Amino acid sequence: MLIGELSRRTGVSARSLRYYEAQGLLEARRGTNGYRAYDEDAVSTVRKIRALLRAGLSTEVIRQVLPCARGEQPGFDWCADLRAILDGELTDLDEQIEALRRSRGALVGLLEARG
């Protein structure tokens, strides 16, 4: 299928699909006319990518975990190092949340001091 059809079927812009390809997340063949051609499984792959992006993973991390993703939710086959990668991402998110809480507390303190 061509990029326009993949875009329609997934609700993802052609620009994003080209970005996923550039990041090594999505594969396309090139026809003799130079157009990108995607296999049927590209629809599922794009849906997995979107789900992983919604979970806050970077494209770099997605590139590592995508081969282990199964289904469109996705679920995982617990490939080597997958647990460590996802645990690391969770730790990073927890640290970011804590930093935001500290910043929020500091801002509240400034507003209360203004009185």
TrEMBL record:
SMART domains: HTH_MERR (SM00422). InterPro entries: DNA-bd_dom_put_sf, MerR-type_HTH_dom, MerR_fam. Pfam families: MerR_1 (PF13411). The keyword Cell division does not apply. It comes from the Bacteria. Keywords: DNA-binding, Repressor, Transcription, Transcription regulation. Residues 1-68 form the HTH merR-type domain. Transmembrane segments: none annotated. PANTHER family: MERR-FAMILY TRANSCRIPTIONAL REGULATOR (PTHR30204:SF69), REDOX-CYCLING DRUG-SENSING TRANSCRIPTIONAL ACTIVATOR SOXR (PTHR30204). This is MerR family transcriptional regulator. It comes from Streptomyces stephensoniae.
